[in-house]
Design brief:
single chain; about 140 residues; alpha/beta; Nucleotidyltransferase, domain 5; five-stranded mixed beta sheet
Length: about 140
Amino acid sequence: MSFGRLERTRGPEPMSEINMTPLVDVMLVLVVIFIITAPLLASSIRLDLPRSEATKPNDAPKFVAVVLDKAGGVFLDDKPVTLAQLAARLAQAGRDSPETEIQLRADQAVPYGRVVEIMGLAQHAGLNRIGFVAEPPGAER
């Protein structure tokens, strides 16, 4: 018989991996919940709606492009026009659709008075939606 130390046995080592089973269980429960609730998110009332021509989606907004170059030329949809022709064509566009938008592109060198003159022709024709086209800073010319 010997007197001395008692030998210790090594206990279980700590786990260094994540237990994936509870995670998978939770994910499967969530999938089942989504599968059950997804049909309920849609309208539960089934209707057979009547058909009508009035419910067609609106056409894309119409626009007219007016260009003023630095030489003083006026262009409507890339075709040269005089001020009288421009006024007549804008009046026609205003009668056809008062929601027509004018996209005004003017060179930097065009005097402000000339731009205001074109804006006045457009407003006289009943076209009040005018958009000024510009390039962002740093754009190539």
